[in-house]
Structures are given as C-alpha cells and as structure tokens.
Amino acid sequence: MAILVSVIVMIGRMLVRRREERERWEREGRPEPAERTPEQQAQDRKTAITWGCLIVAIPVLLVLAYVATR
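Structure tokens predicted for Putative integral membrane protein (70 residues):
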C-alpha cells in the first residue's frame, strides 16, 4: 500500500512540476517544447500501461501471498 501511495504522490508532483514549468515558459516568452511524435506518444502509452499493470499487479500478488501463507 505504501508503494502505491508513493507512486501516486510522485506522479502528482511530476504533473505539478510540468504545469509550473509550462507556466514559467509562458511568462518568460520561451517557446513550448517540441510536440512528441506519434511514435513517441505510442511508446509513452505502452510505458504507462506497463507501469499501470505493475502498480495493480504487485499489491494483488502481495495480498495473494499473504492469504496463501496465512
């Protein structure tokens, strides 16, 4: 459970930092970062799905291991 909470907090912080960076760029007149290519976006989706599955699977496996050894 602690791992799941830690991952959620880290993702939240990353999103907040990205938004703050984008706002700072707009204030300073810097151009937006280059758009990601469709290949990069597809890779990002695959990575997100992989991590999402791991985030769900690890606690489930831990619960099953607990139930099996109890």
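The longest helix spans residues 38-69.
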